[in-house]
Structures are given as C-alpha cells and as structure tokens.
Amino acid sequence: MALFDLTGRVALVTGGNGGIGLGMARGLAACGARVIVTGRDAAKNAAAVQELGGSAAAFQADLRAPGAAERLLAEVLALAGGLDILVNNAGTNIRKRPELVTDEDWATVLDTNLTALMRLTRAAYPALKASGRGRVINIGSMLSIFGVPFSPAYGASKGAVVQYTKSLAAAWAADGITANAVLPGWIDTELTRGARRDVPGLHESVLARTPAKRWGDPKDFAGIAAFLASDAAAFVTGAAIPVDGGYSTQG
C-alpha cells in the first residue's frame, strides 16, 4: 500500500540492535526504509545489520558522551545523504525506591533517557526539515501515565519525553515534521527480564492486569513504527500512543 511505502527514506534507530528498537527497525525495513541502528555493543550491532539485510548499517555510539549526537549525525549523513525518520529508543533504568536513588543514579537515567534524546533530536533537525517529511518517534513508557514505587527516575524521564515530544510537534509542524511518542507496556526484553528478577510477583501481576493476557513482544512494535513513519500518519503529531495490550486501561 503506497501510504506505508518507505522506499528511499533513511531511518535512524537508537538502541536499535535489540528489544523494542530492533522490533521497530524490522518494521521500517520491511516497508522499504534504509535503516541505520546505533548501540554500544558492536557485536549486537553487527547481528542486527545482518538480520535487517539490504542497505542496513550500524554505528557504535554512546549518546551520553559530549558531542556524540553531532558526530553520529555527521556519520549518518555521510553514509546515507539525508535523514527522514529518527527513532529515539535508547534508554536505561535503575530500579530503586525514591529514598534510595542517588544523584549518580538520577543522572545516569536522565542523561540517557532524556538529555541524550534531546541532543540527538536537536542535531537531527536540519536534516529532518530538509526531508520535507521528517518523522520523530520517541519511546516513552506506560510510566508516562502512572507511577510505580521502584522506578522514580525512569518514570520522571519518560514523562518528560512525552512533554518534549509535544513541544517538538508544536514547534516543527510548519517544517513538515511530525513528532509522536510510543508508550510501551510490559514487553519481554532484556531490561524487563531484570525487573522480573528484582520485583517478586511482577510476572503474575502483569498477566493478571493485562487484558491481552500476555507480555508484549518486540515484534509488536513493527507496525506502530511503520505507521508513524509513513505518509499514513502525516496528520498525526503530538500523540502519545500506548502499546501495552490494554494494561494502562485498567484502574
């Protein structure tokens, strides 16, 4: 279907070498986009490129480092000649109760989930504007909607991501750029496997509360990425869309 055809478009997916990021990268590639992933693990980057095939590529990057966003954008533009789609997926979590969170914990989570995202998005603006159909897809969380006792820094960062996304939508619509946030629920990834080890009873409570009666899978994000990146979503901007099997609908 032409509305979902991404042939000729360049997509950059941070943290795209595994989990939700790789799930989104698969969806973009399946619709014809040239996908470039970033991550800190070179071996995982190489495996992702092999799986995505075609013209996929990867750059090793730690986006928390000063100047990393600008260097990465320069590499992407040198390789691909432009940028149409930016998926800000890279993130981290430190699970502690609020009274136990240290300044270092807070800085690690906020720098990774929010500040690095802002720097890369800011650096990408000229290329996205030049595209004439730029797309920003930011990964928030269901913790943008409600709180849990064991992830205060993560929840704060993801709530801020949603508000930042709305600011982008308002500021850049005149440039032909849309900006939307995706709010994952409980997805079976390396990060949440750690949560299941750390939080007794989490697996059972997630299944009990989720109307879909399962944990999400990274493949559940292929479609939402393809939609938001495509012409089908040209008039969708500033939205925060849960992908959680209905978890956040339950009181």
Plain-language structure description:
This protein is of the alpha/beta class. The chain has a single domain, classed as Rossmann fold (3-Layer(aba) Sandwich). The chain has 8 helices and 7 strands. It has a 7-stranded parallel sheet, with helices on both faces. Strand 2 (34-39), helix 2 and strand 3 (57-60) form a beta-alpha-beta unit. Helix 1 packs across helix 8 (222-229), helix 3 (68-80) packs parallel to helix 4 and helix 4 runs parallel beside helix 5. The longest helix is centred in the middle third of the chain and has 29 residues, at 103-131. The protein starts with 9 loop residues before the first strand and ends in an 8-residue tail after the last strand. The relative contact order is 0.16.
Strand order of the largest sheet: 3-2-1-4-5-6-7
Named CATH topology:
Rossmann fold
Rg, nearest Å:
17 Å
The arrangement of helices and strands along the chain is: EHEHEHEHEHEHHHE
Count of alpha and pi helical runs: 8
First and last CA, distance? 38 Å
* Fraction in beta strands: 5-15%
Spell out the key features of this protein.
seven-stranded parallel sheet, Rossmann fold, single chain, 8 helices, alpha/beta, 251 residues
